[in-house]
Design brief:
By secondary structure, the protein is mainly α. The chain has seven helices and four strands. Helix 1 runs antiparallel to helix 2, helix 2 packs antiparallel against helix 3 and helix 3 runs antiparallel to helix 4. It is globular.
């Protein structure tokens, strides 16, 4: 198995380790091909509402890495600007150390093998999905703030009707 990023690939590799039935694997693969474009659209639209620069870049980079069905491991290099922007920030929150842990798991250089196969790419994928979920949930929370509600309504109106109208 050539290691890659992507939800479909992660499901496929996990199913090979766990010896899951083929109909369940097919369902997971089809589900991942449906859910990733949806999450990508939410991620891209949420990036407009985030105040911190590293989160804006992260939400876009997550889509660049995860949207293709099989994104090669070199695509993880796209994430380095996010890490640099993260460490440039002055504010330290409670989630700061959790983000650092996920970054370390994502960039883990030590090979961890189970049944003679490296599982580093699975750990990298799971940490990347966790980073994406955490950042996306924070972005959605910021988008629902009162000050962004009008902007959000205009974007939703534009997407549904194809033109801007002031409400």
């Amino acid at each position: 198995f050539y290691p890659r990023f992507g939800l479909a690939h992660t499901f496929f590799i996990v199913s090979k380790f766990l010896v899951l039935p083929s109909n369940l694997v097919n369902g997971l693969l089809i589900g991942s091909k449906i859910i990733i474009p949806f999450i990508s659209a939410v991620s891209l639209s949420s990036s407009f509402f985030v105040k911190e620069e590293w989160k804006k870049v992260a939400l876009i980079v997550f889509v660049l890495i995860q949207f293709p069905t099989n994104s090669a491991l070199y695509c993880g290099l796209y994430f380095f600007p996010v890490i640099i922007l993260f460490f440039e920030r002055k504010q330290r929150t409670n989630l700061y150390w959790f983000y650092i842990l996920l970054f370390c798991l994502f960039l883990n250089p030590y090979q961890i093998a189970i049944q003679g196969r490296s599982i580093n790419y699975l750990i990298a994928n799971l940490s990347l999905f966790s980073l994406w979920a955490l950042t996306l949930l924070q972005a959605i929370n910021e988008a629902w703030n009162v000050e962004n509600r009008d902007k959000l309504i205009r974007i939703a109106h534009f997407i549904t009707l194809g033109k801007f109208k002031v409400i």
